[in-house]
Amino acid sequence: MAKWKLVLMPVLAKLGFWGVGAWALLDSSTIPVPMDAILAVYVWNDKSHFWIYCLLAAAGSAVGGLLPYGLGRAGGELFLLKRVNRKRYERIRARFERQEFLAMMIPSMLPPPTPWKACVFAAGVFEMRVVPFMLSVFCGRMVRWLVLSLLVLKLGPGAVGLIEHHGPALLAIVGGLAVIGFAWWWLRKRRAGKLIG
Questions:
Q1: What total number of domains does the chain contain?
Q2: What is the pTM of this model?
Q3: Could you list the residue range(s) of the whole structural domain that residue 36 is in?
């Protein structure tokens, strides 16, 4: 894997915006890469376009996640039942059915060592629809990498270490604010629709 990374790094670095999307796709689908560190380098070297790097990394991650998702959908139930008992399996399924969007978005916001691919695999096993799956991954990754990018712009590339040590707390706060903001926007839009109707 280290050899592959040495070969791929210079090639993907030359791709600019598309390179970060390709790294994210690779990370989410097959080969784990230090995505936070890679994104930090891209952002630090091209500060004015940080949001484009976040956008393409989030999109690449959503597309790359389709591989473990597809494996889960294709017959992961038996695989999962061999590793967890039926009671725990049903509890996980119930959580996904109640809040499938948040059940996928929250792990997508969290940095390693969050078992993200296991959550993606479970989303496939529990037959989460493809569009909500991709949207939840995209939103979670976008929040994560926007927070990282803003910290990199403020503190430099060393912000990656800050995310590694305090990432879950920072992202939980930002994610909570994002969810509250979305709920407020949705309720406001719904009320406006009732007033017009």
A1: 1
A2: 0.74
A3: 2-196
